[in-house]
Every structure is written in C-alpha cells, then in structure tokens.
Amino acid sequence: MKRRFRSFAKVNLGLEVVGKLRSGYHELKTVFATLSLHDMLEIAETKSGVFVRSDHEGVPDDESNLAHRAAVLMQKLARRKSGVSIRIRKRIPIGGGLGGGSSNAAAVLRGLDLMWKLNLGPAGLLEAASSLGADVPYFLFGGLALGLGRGDRIHPLDIELRGKVLLVSGPAGLSTAAVFRRFATRRAAPGKSRIDLFLGNPPTDRVFRQSVGTLRNDLERAALQESPPLAELARLVRQVARRREAVHATMSGSGSSYFLLFEDATALTRAALDLRTAGVKSRRCSFVSRRAYERRFEVPRPWTSLKP
Ligand code: C5P
User: Fold this and answer.
1) pLDDT of residue 189
2) E strand or H helix that includes residue 167
C-alpha cells in the first residue's frame, strides 16, 4: 500500500534572535508561514529497513536525510518491524531557508502516523520531531505560527494571511552555522520586538502593510556579509520591492531565499518581470492556511507512481 503526501515549504515572515540558550544555540522568536510550494513524498510499506530515494542529486539517500531518520523513529515509536520506502520529488530549493528537509521529515512522521493508524497527532509526534531538528515541529502544524526557543516551541496563530508571494532563490552553499557565528560577533539590535508588535496588531485588511511589513530577519545582515553574491541579490530584490510597492521583502531563515509579498497580482507580475530582466528567476506562490495544510496533506488517488 502506497500513499502520497505533500510536503510544503515555509518562510520566516520575521526572525529575531533574542538570546543564547544553554545548549549554545541561539534563542529565536520567529513567525512561520506555509507556502504552496511543495515536494511530493510517496511512502510505501515494505518488508524491512528504510529506503529513501529522490529525483534530486543533492538529496542524500542515507541516514543523513532527515526523512530517513524520521522513518526509523516511527518504526521505534510504533514498535513495528515492517520497512518503509520513501520517494521524494524535490521541488523546494535545498539549503534555501525554506525548511525542505525538515518538512520532508515531518511529512514522514505524519504520513506513517496515518498509514499505521497510530493516532499520535501533532502532540504525540512533537518529541520525535524536536529530536530531528528545530524546524521539524513547525511542520506538524503548518499555517501561521510563532516559534520560540530554537524555533521548535510552536504556538499556532489564528491569523489568516492574504497576499501573493514571489520567491527568489539565493546562491547555494550558505552555511547556517557560519551565519550564526557571524551574527554572534555583532551586538544584538536594541529596541522593541517587531514580532511582539505584529502579534498585538495582527494583519487585517486595513493594516496588512503596517503589520506584516514591519517584520525583519535579524540574521540577514550576517548572511549578506557571509555571501557577497547574496548581498548583490538582496540589493536587487529591495530595489524591485520598492519600485513595485511590495508589502514586505526579506530573507527566510538563515538564507539564502528571499521573498516579496504583494497585495495584488499585477504588482507581483511586474516585479517578476523586473527580476527576469535582471537575469533572476522567481517563483509565484501563495500562503497555505493551517486548515488547507491539513486538507491538502494527502493526495487522493488516482495518481501514477513517482519514478524510478
Ligand atoms: O540547525 P542546524 O543544525 O542547521 O544549525 C547549524 C548550526 O547553526 C548549529 O550547530 C549552531 O551552531 C547554529 N545555530 C544556532 N542557533 C540556532 C540554530 C543554529 O546557533 N537557533
């Protein structure tokens, strides 16, 4: 029996570094949002072991793949001897701050929870998700959510986000560790948390721009110092964002993707054309609400299996 699941990407609408944890990790306050951009996962039960394969050469097929480790954890949690075969159709850029690997891992947890009728749900899967990585717990919930701690303490937000998103991939190979190291050598930005202001003044039709547009990513400056090509891309993105009156334009996670947020589709189309003229590809997406995240998780049959 084979089942197929969507594994969505995320962006950080805002990300603040609020301190340092005893583990040495940085303590974050971040607002996550789900994008319609997604990978596809096909999960099948097999006789034994765990097998992962993807159509993208950058995706490892051994235990270094979080999806592989998620399957092993689920075998233990469910005390099952049966094996799991996972095929991944990769569409989310790798290492782009869009949470692709973490999303795949959460999709394996949620998918096997369904397939094996374990009924663990987000609460029952939380510990396993957290042990896999800081971004994995968010993907148990999806939609708009506040992340605290390492970003793994999730508080779903009942805010419906509108607007259209233009996603721009940055250069590959930007290291999260290097960005945090560089951030650590800078003094933290003083002032009131913009995320707190956002939560106290959530986006309604009237205050969409003032609310979402104020959010910032504290890691951006460090990422731009770390990668001159990214700094160049950021300049272009900001220029286009200003010209086309984007509501919001910032980097996701520790980089290297940027996203621009628009109130109307015409402005987004113009921005996409501006970027293309400058030789930069972009991708249109929309936000996925928590309800849609649940509803769209499994792909109902009929479909033909992923190759190979
Ligand atoms: O999450 P990931 O393992 O990719 O992080 C790589 C490194 O970035 C960590 O080992 C840590 O040094 C740094 N980091 C941090 N605080 C975070 C996340 C990552 O200091 N919240």
Assistant:
1) 62
2) strand 164-168
Distance (Å, whole) CA 40 – CA 37: 10
CB 84 within 8 A of CB 46: yes
Whether 218 is catalytic: no
- Ligand 1 centroid to Cα of residue 149, in Å, is 12
Q: Would you tell me the crossing angle of helices 228-243 and 265-277 to the nearest 10 degrees?
A: 140
> pTM for the complete prediction?
0.96
Task: Classify burial at 130, counting beta carbons within 10 Å of its beta carbon; exposed 0-12, middle 13-18, buried 19 or more.
Answer: middle
> How confident is residue 210, by pLDDT bands cut at 50, 70 and 90?
confident
Considering the candidates 39, 135, 152, 274, report the single residue annotated as catalytic.
135
CA of 177 to the centre of ligand 1 (A): 5
Does residue 4's CB lie within 6 angstroms of at least one atom of ligand 1? Answer: no
Q: List, for residues 225-284, the tens digit of each pLDDT value.
A: 999 999 999 999 999 999 999 999 999 999 999 999 999 999 999 999 999 999 999 999
Which listed residue (10, 29, 90, 164) is catalytic? 10
C-beta 1 within 6 A of ligand 1: no
Q: Which two tokens mark 308?
A: 């190979």
Report CA(200)–ligand 1 centroid distance (Å).
29
Q: What is the DSSP string of 52-92?
A: EEESSTTS--STTSHHHHHHHHHHHHHT---EEEEEEE--S
Active site residue 62: no
Helix H or strand E encompassing 253: none
